[in-house]
Amino acid sequence: MLHRGHIDLFDVVYDVDARNLDLKVKDDTKLYAEAAVLREPEDVVIPVDPAITSATVPSDPEYGFLGRAGDRVYVLQQNGRNADGTRQPWPGWGAESVPGGLLQDDIVVLDVDVEGPGKVFAYSSGAGTPFVYIDGNFSWPDDLETNVGSHVHTNWAFSEEGTYTLKVRAKATTVDGLPLVSPTSTYTFVVGAPTQPPPPPPTRLTVSGADRAYFPGDEVRLQAQQSPETELTEYVWESRRPGAADFTSVSIGAPATYAFPAHLSDDGTQYRALLLDRHRETVAVSPPVTVRVREPGAGGGPAADVCAAQPDVDVVGEGHADLALRIRNDGELVAQVKDGRTGSPVWHGPAQVAFRLGTAAAGTGTERAGLEFLGRRGEIFWAVGQTQQPGVPWLGWSTDDATMTDSVSDEIGWSLDRSRVTGPGDVFVFQTDAFGRVLPLLGTGAGWPASATLARGSHSHGTWAFTAPGRYTLPFTYTATSYGRPTSATATVTFLVGPCAFPSPSPAPTGPTPVPASPGATAIPAPVVPAPVVSTPPAPIQVPDLGPRPVVLSRARLVGTPVVGARLTCRHRFSVGTIRSFQWLRDGEPVRGRSASRRLVADDIGHRIRCRAVVAAPAGTASSLSPTRTVKPLARPARRP
């Protein structure tokens, strides 16, 4: 409990390991330590003593936002003490420790939500009109914009006695365009005697997803469920093989869902989930559940429930992945699967991954114009959607890896070798516009293109549609120029579609879907006898380490006098790389000038000038934006009398 002294309540920090923002309480009260201490917000209470904070709303209309004149309010003063010198808690906020040049415009936004018996206000007062940061008369959440390096203190006013909780997140965007959002932190003010709410009921944890038998290649998907629900989202998953004495951890710091491809060796394995609090202490442990895996056709399950994949192939049944292009150190193009299911990307060779489309991916044909290629009304097709869906792999394509620098051509060719496609049906890859119109990319159907163009530095998703269940292999070729020389890469992608029993590929159709012999009849294709296929997945492609990414060591700054006729120079400091470009901005808009210095002209008078330096290295780029300088006219010397 911090009952007096200096406190940075919303102290924004940058967590280097997590590469994200976080919120702390900077306790500078010296009540419990001789130096400032960073504390977790949930461990701190700010008491508001009515005996030293009680006041009445003045009749001055400038303060009418606090209520009617004469209304009782409880105020923590913006200078930390009453007029008689009595010290109070002095809470403020700031982002003093966030590195300069990390965030766009060096801005952090604090997203604040509040619960309590009354209204909360944060405002600064002085000789002029008070500046209101948080207005309790408006709906929450409120956004507080603060600058990197800033430190703000305000008056805090509360309209009623009781306990107030403020839930706060810090949000920003890096100079590279990456959005940052901190975990939500909870802050507590107690006005008057602290209320003692009844202790919350203990959290019970259960795991679902083990109430059915799986078959090899199926995705086992276990889901942890809290009762009652809490704000905690971090888990440890543990397993215990048959005959083992203890559980062992299989995933630490994981989400509420744990998924993995089923193998016969998993049969009889028990799994349980442990819920962690912010201090990584265990809050609840679920009862164990047992996963059952059966041979195809055994234990009441038909063999048709399994789409077979080659040994040692990772079957992806859900989550984000991309067919991604990268450039090796020798300048050659490579194609890999960028697996984003675990948060940090994992890179695979295309032959080491298969994408499984099960029941959740099934749809039925309609008579909607433009979608006739998916089948007649009521006919089943399977699809990976343009947007992410539960139980369906979300496969996209990307050319935005850090290795894809300006040395690579802006346009990259993407083609499907239809003569080598295998599978029992047609394949279509397309996107749709804002009104549902189909934009074809690649396909095996009559009239569909076999090639498309990708833009370097892009990341997209579309629909992958299959008209029949079975095993498909799609051979793709990518072409580009790198450092002025042509380069290409190939990738063969496997899809396991629907309830099928196709352990080896079958030929793809070579023409359009047959027309029924008579009205109402259904065309029955001739049976396909699969040929045995023996394939050995190649080792994953190793992309050499391109070295460290450039880091801003000190924020860019302007050197020189900001007057007309003078020259401003953009000074900067990065860890590695060579300067790629300079950009000069006037009131936030680009102006002429691409060198490290710029001569100021009459049009600059009264405007804010700043510069941005961009550095490039093989592993990526970084940029730094300077503070602004306001340009003044050149002072003329006074005439002698």
TrEMBL record:
Positions of the UniProt region annotated as Disordered: 622-641
Name by which UniProt lists this protein: Ig-like domain-containing protein
Classification lineage: Bacteria, Bacillati, Actinomycetota, Actinomycetes, Motilibacterales
